[in-house]
Amino acid sequence: MLRRGKDTERGAPTRIELGAVVLDAERHEVLLEGREPLFTRAEFRLLWKLVSRPGRVFSRDELVDGITGGEAYILDRNVDVHVSSIRKKLGAEAGLIATVRGVGYKCRD
Known about the structure:
about 110 residues, Arc Repressor Mutant, subunit A, three-stranded antiparallel beta sheet, 4 helices, about 40% helix
Protein backbone atom coordinates (compact mmCIF):
# COMPACT_ATOMS: atom_id res chain seq x y z
CA MET A 1 0.00 0.00 0.00
CA LEU A 2 2.90 2.34 0.64
CA ARG A 3 4.15 1.88 -2.92
CA ARG A 4 0.68 2.60 -4.27
CA GLY A 5 0.54 5.82 -2.26
CA LYS A 6 3.93 6.93 -3.61
CA ASP A 7 2.82 6.35 -7.21
CA THR A 8 -0.23 8.52 -6.64
CA GLU A 9 1.89 11.23 -5.05
CA ARG A 10 4.34 11.28 -7.95
CA GLY A 11 1.50 11.55 -10.40
CA ALA A 12 2.32 8.25 -12.10
CA PRO A 13 -0.46 7.28 -14.49
CA THR A 14 -2.68 4.38 -13.51
CA ARG A 15 -4.42 4.16 -16.88
CA ILE A 16 -2.87 4.32 -20.34
CA GLU A 17 -4.77 4.44 -23.63
CA LEU A 18 -2.88 3.75 -26.83
CA GLY A 19 -5.07 3.26 -29.86
CA ALA A 20 -7.53 0.44 -29.22
CA VAL A 21 -5.52 -0.79 -26.21
CA VAL A 22 -6.32 0.43 -22.69
CA LEU A 23 -4.23 -0.63 -19.68
CA ASP A 24 -5.50 -0.04 -16.15
CA ALA A 25 -2.89 -0.63 -13.45
CA GLU A 26 -5.31 -0.36 -10.53
CA ARG A 27 -7.57 -3.06 -11.99
CA HIS A 28 -4.65 -4.96 -13.51
CA GLU A 29 -6.53 -5.35 -16.77
CA VAL A 30 -6.08 -4.80 -20.47
CA LEU A 31 -9.03 -3.80 -22.62
CA LEU A 32 -8.83 -4.35 -26.34
CA GLU A 33 -11.72 -2.94 -28.34
CA GLY A 34 -14.08 -3.50 -25.41
CA ARG A 35 -13.03 -7.08 -24.69
CA GLU A 36 -10.67 -8.19 -21.96
CA PRO A 37 -8.09 -10.77 -23.06
CA LEU A 38 -6.49 -12.55 -20.11
CA PHE A 39 -2.93 -11.44 -19.45
CA THR A 40 -0.64 -13.07 -16.92
CA ARG A 41 1.06 -10.94 -14.30
CA ALA A 42 4.35 -11.04 -16.21
CA GLU A 43 2.68 -10.17 -19.53
CA PHE A 44 0.84 -7.25 -17.97
CA ARG A 45 3.99 -5.89 -16.32
CA LEU A 46 5.96 -6.19 -19.55
CA LEU A 47 3.25 -4.52 -21.63
CA TRP A 48 2.84 -1.75 -19.02
CA LYS A 49 6.58 -1.04 -19.06
CA LEU A 50 6.64 -0.79 -22.86
CA VAL A 51 3.44 1.24 -23.23
CA SER A 52 4.30 3.66 -20.42
CA ARG A 53 7.32 4.89 -22.43
CA PRO A 54 6.38 4.76 -26.15
CA GLY A 55 9.37 5.02 -28.47
CA ARG A 56 11.94 4.11 -25.81
CA VAL A 57 13.86 0.92 -26.53
CA PHE A 58 14.16 -1.47 -23.58
CA SER A 59 16.82 -4.16 -23.44
CA ARG A 60 15.78 -7.67 -22.47
CA ASP A 61 17.54 -7.23 -19.11
CA GLU A 62 15.52 -4.08 -18.37
CA LEU A 63 12.33 -5.91 -19.26
CA VAL A 64 13.29 -8.88 -17.05
CA ASP A 65 13.63 -6.44 -14.13
CA GLY A 66 10.25 -4.96 -15.04
CA ILE A 67 8.62 -8.38 -15.11
CA THR A 68 10.07 -9.76 -11.88
CA GLY A 69 10.53 -6.56 -9.91
CA GLY A 70 13.83 -8.04 -8.75
CA GLU A 71 11.91 -10.80 -6.94
CA ALA A 72 13.01 -13.75 -9.08
CA TYR A 73 15.56 -14.83 -11.62
CA ILE A 74 14.47 -15.61 -15.16
CA LEU A 75 16.40 -15.80 -18.40
CA ASP A 76 16.30 -12.82 -20.71
CA ARG A 77 15.01 -15.09 -23.50
CA ASN A 78 11.81 -15.56 -21.48
CA VAL A 79 11.01 -12.00 -22.54
CA ASP A 80 10.79 -13.20 -26.15
CA VAL A 81 8.21 -15.81 -25.17
CA HIS A 82 6.15 -13.23 -23.25
CA VAL A 83 6.28 -10.76 -26.14
CA SER A 84 5.13 -13.46 -28.54
CA SER A 85 2.21 -14.31 -26.26
CA ILE A 86 1.28 -10.62 -25.86
CA ARG A 87 1.31 -10.12 -29.62
CA LYS A 88 -1.05 -13.08 -30.09
CA LYS A 89 -3.44 -11.68 -27.50
CA LEU A 90 -3.35 -8.20 -29.04
CA GLY A 91 -4.32 -9.59 -32.44
CA ALA A 92 -4.65 -6.72 -34.94
CA GLU A 93 -2.86 -4.41 -32.47
CA ALA A 94 0.23 -6.67 -32.31
CA GLY A 95 2.21 -4.08 -34.28
CA LEU A 96 2.17 -1.95 -31.14
CA ILE A 97 5.29 -3.81 -29.98
CA ALA A 98 8.30 -3.51 -32.24
CA THR A 99 11.46 -5.60 -32.13
CA VAL A 100 14.73 -3.67 -32.25
CA ARG A 101 17.27 -6.20 -33.49
CA GLY A 102 20.22 -6.70 -31.19
CA VAL A 103 18.75 -4.44 -28.52
CA GLY A 104 15.27 -5.41 -27.33
CA TYR A 105 11.73 -4.12 -27.74
CA LYS A 106 9.80 -0.87 -27.85
CA CYS A 107 6.25 0.36 -28.08
CA ARG A 108 5.54 2.28 -31.27
CA ASP A 109 4.64 5.94 -30.74
